[in-house]
Amino acid sequence: MPEISDRLKKVSVSASVAMTQKARDLAAQGIDVVVLSTGEPDFPTPQHAIDAAYQAALNGDTRYPPTDGTPELRRAIRDKFKRDNQLDYDVSQILTAGGAKQIIFNAMMATINPGDEVVIPGPSWISYADIVRFAGGIPVPVNCQQAHEFIPQPEDIEAAITDKTKWVLLNFPGNPTGSVATKEELQAIGKVLLKYPDLWIMTDDIYEHLIYDGREFFTLAQAEPRLYDRTLTVNGVSKAYSMTGWRLGFCGGPKPLITAMSNVNTQNSGGVCTLTQAAAVAVLNGPQDLLRERAEIYCQRRDYVLERLNAIPGLHCHTPGGAFYLYINISEFIGRTCASGKKITSDADFVMALIEEQFVVTVQGAAYGMSPYFRISYATSTERLKTGCDRIEAFCQGFLS
Ligand code: PMP
């Protein structure tokens, strides 16, 4: 057989995707599965986005798009950055791609030379490290402690920086912890980054609008304007507007970086679907009330699940300020035996036993680089969350020793 590339061999299949597939397989057998592994909103895409896409199709807007994004969309993104983040980007500093994921991919492909290091505070989204490896770089994790609400400490970031560091990646509200950095915390991290003029910084703000308890969202280039020239501010419509399937991510950043990323874009996609671009213009320029309304519902769900799970002896979870995930510590279950007689030696064992005994699908903390934890997504109906919590409770109470 002809071989696949060495580059690809370094890349793993996302554990959350694998878990979601497991859930689909069980459901196909007629089993009532509670899926708490999927990182996507359960709300519908706003009607005005669908109308705009339909209208674009009727108008014949079905030809190759400008690869960087249509002028209307890039203007809408420019206005969004100004409105929400007080960031001034010229339209030429804005780029779109097939999801924030492809933006990050393009950024790494545009900048990483073999052996370059990328500092990634963790636990972190699964894809960062794989994208870095794919581009030929080396992910350098920085462990964030639960005692610090999983916010990276400036001195820990500094300790991870070497003369090979090309990027530092930041993500608030974060996946998988939901942690949100305050303006002061960002400024403290920024103070360290100012000392290292040869590295880029990426802030992944995809969960920007999923933020609770009256917290205010800040992004790095806003909190520390002196880093504006080296910061790539990444965002998208997936999580805020329930548009995961439309595949649109965007960023604002320094012109030379955007130009390089644009060159990658021309070779790996040729631009985002024209109908998606029309829909994105509609949501970015349209009424924004739905963001607060939906965040309110996520917050109520968070409170419900947090209270239920923290009441289960042995489970411990901090109160996340954003996103739609809980990252739950299970150290008290390690070394014990669950109802089916299986000894739990890792969070992967815990998650697998939870599927097998109670048909609740979650993701093991190991996938995000910190154990022993498991991640649940509460982006699902309260009714399903109640069933999920009942089953997790039964699972934990069923331990034999
Ligand atoms: N960043 C983070 C932290 C995420 O959790 C996700 C989706 N799970 C993405 C980026 C990707 O978003 P998109 O749908 O825009 O590719």
UniProtKB/TrEMBL annotation:
The keyword Transferase applies. SUPFAM superfamilies: PLP-dependent transferases. Residues 32-392 form the Aminotransferase class I/classII large domain. Its EC number is 2.6.1.-. InterPro entries: Aminotransferase_I/II_large (IPR004839), AspAT/PAT-like (IPR050596), NHTrfase_class1_PyrdxlP-BS (IPR004838), PyrdxlP-dep_Trfase (IPR015424), PyrdxlP-dep_Trfase_major (IPR015421), PyrdxlP-dep_Trfase_small (IPR015422). This is Aminotransferase. Its cofactor is pyridoxal 5'-phosphate. Belongs to the class-I pyridoxal-phosphate-dependent aminotransferase family. Keywords: Aminotransferase, Pyridoxal phosphate, Transferase. It comes from Tatumella terrea. PROSITE patterns: AA_TRANSFER_CLASS_1.
